[in-house]
Amino acid sequence: MFTDFNLKVIEPTELVDTARTLKAEGYRMVQICATRIPDAYELTYSFDKDLELHHYRVILPEGKEIQSITDSYFAAFVYENEIKDLFGINITHIALDFQGGFFVTNEPTPWKDSK
Amino acid sequence: MAKQTIIPFGPQHPVLPEPIHLDLVLEDEKVVQAIPSIGFIHRGLEKLVEKKEYTELMYVTERICGICAFGHNWGYCHAIEILLNVEVPERAEYLRVMWHEMSRVHSHLLWLGLLADAFGFESLFMHCWRLREGILDLFEKTTGGRVIFSVNKIGGVHRDVSPEMLLEISTVIAGMKKEYDELAKVFIEDVSVKNRTVGVGKVSKEDAAALCAVGPTARGSGVPFDIRSTGHSIYGKLGFEPIVEEGGDCYARALVRVKEVYQSMEMIQKIIAEMPEGEISVNVKGKPEGEFMARVEQPRGESCYYVKGNGTKNLERMRVRTPTNINVPFLVSALAGCELADVPVIVLSIDPCISCTER
Amino acid sequence: MASFKMGKMVMRSLFGKPATLMYPVKPAKITEATRGHITINVDTCIFCGICQKKCPTNAITVDRKGRVWSIERMKCIQCNCCAVNCPKDSLLMETTYTAPSAVKITDTFQGPPKEEKAPAAAAAEA
Amino acid sequence: MSYVTKSPWLIHYDGSSCNGCDIEVLACLTPMYDAERFGIINTGNPKHADIFLVTGGVNEQNKNVVKQIYDQMPEPKVVVAVGICACSGGIFEECYNILGGADKVIPVDVYVPGCAARPEQIIDGIVQGLGVLAEKRAAMGKAPAATATAAAKLQDKPEEKPAAEPEDKPE
């Protein structure tokens, strides 16, 4: 049973290359999770190989944009659009970009001001 | 090049009780591209962490989805138990897996019925749903609810199941298996089922793996990915082996589910036979701190529960990644190049659960 | 023989008893464990307000001073959370469900006045 | 019009529910509960329906869908809100994207409690809805020239704009 949280913090600029390497090594993308922390966002990218989870974390300062990983993992478009709509993080070059129309909410980007 | 037409599918569509909207770009009768748009049942329940304590959040997590309610609740409890360093009693684990596998039987029967309905096999639909009621009755007798159970708690389960009840479950499941044999035969052999499913919505093993598909959807394409094979909880003791089909079409996905029902039924019998005596819950104290991601194999596939606590009774973040969420790209790829008339069957074949997806 | 795959099932359905439960004619199927609706024994209730605080949907209102316990039936989700947390076990999950209605029902229970038996009863129960 | 009492058709729309009530609504139509023996048919077309079953709360994206389906149904019509979410928003009431129960958007005639609502409760709710339907029809009969708006007034219901929306389906 896995009880630890394999976390590795990387720079926002390293993200696309990391995703590409992981893809070549046969990792499967599990999920992307955004968390609001003071003055920044915490993006956790989880990958899986042989049923073991590996998390890569990007701390993205407020107002900065980040490049999409959809060129390595097409399936990431679901999460990236979601994060774009709910957190207001600008993710560029998404393969299937809904331009903020993925989730229509009562208030735009409800998570942005949660802290 | 033929003229392109865009046909909207959903949100209110007879084949699917749930609202999903697809823009189907057609050339004649062929679907060239499908663009999903969701958010019709987005509730934003992940944000409730700010308003509800981590113990109250239990009742929220099981209402993420009414079909796999037990699994959602279990996954969340498991994540919190890891953060709080709680060892769950063995009997509680056995009971949890028993209810979880019962959920799988009920969910797969429900899906098989809906599939039959999607290609117009009304009587098969009715028979699947009639059989499913047997499981719901067992749920009501053991937990008190038909679809939402409220039986889990952090550190164990609320209700114990008496030996007489276990015996009854065992007998009911054995009886159900006999009836299910006939239904399974129809799904596996019947010409009308095969006509509508064989070769429809084909996705190769490589594509399924690249699209990160999970659950029976991936296993139907030959990807042997199943969280239960990590042997977490008591699955290691049950000798679990994932069921894999190589076809990659709707028929293969149906076949995986047909066989998984048998597998779950066998597992339930095994659990009942091996059920240990003892406590069903431990007292839990403290406030969760740190972060963890728990994974549970739901009827629809792997789902993840990420929790981040900061030492207060309100969590900092709770995130749920549900199986349909990650199967949507798979669906988009399966729909490209199919006939318009096959769209409902393909959409159903990934077993979409939209309320999970949008939370 | 594709058309006879369901033959046995069809024959059984043809001659067997219907599977239908005939609900309005026969009473609803209810088991001992069924979670239907919450009731309160106001005589043992100490109006501590824990149920109000714990209720995930805020269906319960407790008026400490007036000793009134009320529940909005159209908000209660039968999660049994209040009954689990009740320190005096005054709350009980009954097996019968709330009937549908055209208005949103609120059930109110008035507790006995505090002076009557406060010290004695509390001591006896503790 | 009297034959409608014998065979009321219903349309079911899933608002932002958790699926629990939806599968229970479907379970009502399958052999064990078999609401079809009362002549009830689950139709996909609002123009054929007398009873509108709403499950789940209403949010920003589907509030127009709910409204459109309601407007497209012919008079007299009954709205049955199934489940706690459709009654009041339930456990999701405090979520940022939930407006509340179905009554925030359309007038609701019968509330069916339960989480998830049991099939027996849903059948009870539909039967109560039939009573309301008969009353509404009687009210319409008294004023033969009554239009949809007049009938709504007789029922003291908030006036709905009858044909403001275009007649196409929300699909």
Structure in words:
The complex is a heterotetramer of chains A (about 120), B (about 350), C (about 130) and D (about 170). Chain A is of the alpha/beta class and about 120 residues long. Helix content of chain A is about 20%, strand content about 35%. In chain A, the strands form 2 sheets. In chain A, strands 1-4-3-2 form a 4-stranded mixed sheet. In chain A, strands 5-6 form a two-stranded parallel ribbon. The N and C termini of chain A lie far apart (about 35 Å). Helices cover about 45% and strands about 15% of the residues of chain B. Chain C has a domain at about 25-110: Alpha-Beta Plaits, CATH 3.30.70. Chain C is of the alpha+beta class and about 130 residues long. The termini of chain C are far apart. Chain C is elongated. Chain C has 4 helices and 5 strands. Chain C is about 20% helix and about 15% strand. Chains in contact: A-B, A-D, B-C, B-D, C-D. The interface of B and C includes residues 144, 182 and 191 of B.
Number of DSSP-assigned strands of chain D: 7
Let me know the average pLDDT of chain D. Answer: 75
| Radius of gyration over C-alpha positions of chain C, nearest whole angstrom | 23 Å
Distance between the termini of chain C: 73 Å
Q: Describe the strand arrangement of the main beta sheet of chain C, using strand numbers.
A: 2-3-5
CATH architecture of the domain at 26-108 in chain C: 2-Layer Sandwich
**Biggest interface and residues each:** B-D, 43 and 41 residues
The count of strands of chain C amounts to: 5
Largest sheet of chain C: 3 strands, antiparallel
Largest sheet of chain D: 5 strands, parallel
CATH architecture of chain D: 3-Layer(aba) Sandwich
- What would the CATH topology of the domain at 26-108 in chain C be? Alpha-Beta Plaits
Q: Percent of residues of chain C in helical segments?
A: 10-25%
User: What is the residue-mean pLDDT of chain C, rounded to a whole number?
Assistant: 77
- CATH fold group of chain D: Rossmann fold
Report the β-strand fraction of chain D as a percent range. Answer: 15-25%
**What would you call the structural class of chain D?**
alpha/beta
Q: What radius of gyration of chain D results from the CA coordinates?
A: 15 Å
Which segments of chain C are poorly predicted (pLDDT under 50) over 5 or more consecutive residues?
117-126
Query: In one word, what is the shape of chain D?
Result: globular
The protein's oligomeric status is heterotetramer
